[in-house]
Design a protein that fits this description.
Largest sheet: none
Strand content: under 5%
Distance between the termini: 79 Å
Number of domains: 2
Number of strands: 0
Shape: elongated
Radius of gyration: 37 Å
Order of helices and strands: HHHH
Helix content: over 70%
Low-confidence stretches: none
């Protein structure tokens, strides 16, 4: 004990002060943790309240539908892109095979098209192929566009309903809850 007070008692006092500071810091930390937990709980309740309002506004479990769309929108759009790439690669290979077959049948070298050696059936065949290519392009574009447009329209309609509802709520608050 004499070694701890050999410095004139100052080290013992500073230890006591440090212990008090630690206790105050622990107490403050506990208060901050409680405050943070309360803040998180309030935020969670606000989110749940908004979800319930959205469900009331749109009906059913609209929140789940929105979350489902939100989680899957990138998967849907990448699936559309991947699918069209695969379709195009397959179609391009098929068109190349048909073109080469027509070239072979017509006896025309791949690098040049001497028009005096190309028969009418070759032009008719190529015309038919290009018509198929155009139809395929249009079909894929319509399919992709209709899928993405449908999803976009539903999301925009949902967003508009929520914005209209929020705008109505703000109007109610400004007018003292009289509903406009």
């Amino acid at each position: 004990m004499s070694s701890s007070t050999s410095g004139g008692g100052a080290p013992a006092e500073s230890e006591a002060e440090l212990e008090q500071q630690i206790q105050r810091a622990k107490k403050r930390l506990g208060e901050l943790e409680k405050k943070l937990a309360a803040q998180r709980q309030r935020r969670k309740e606000e989110v749940n309240k908004k979800k319930r309002k959205l469900d009331e506004l749109i009906g059913g479990s609209a929140t789940n539908d929105v979350n489902f769309l939100y989680r899957n929108i990138s998967r849907i759009s990448s699936g559309v892109t991947d699918r069209s790439k695969r379709l195009w690669e397959e179609r391009l290979r098929t068109y190349e095979e048909i073109r080469m077959a027509l070239v072979t049948i017509g006896g025309v070298p791949r690098s040049s098209f001497p028009f005096d050696r190309i028969g009418l059936e070759y032009f008719e065949g190529m015309s038919g192929i290009w018509a198929c290519v155009a139809k395929d392009q249009e079909a894929i574009e319509r399919w992709e566009l209709s899928l993405l447009t449908s999803i976009r329209d539903k999301i925009i309609a949902l967003k508009k309903k929520v914005e209209d509802h929020e705008g109505q709520s703000k109007t109610d608050i400004k007018s003292g809850g009289r509903g406009g």
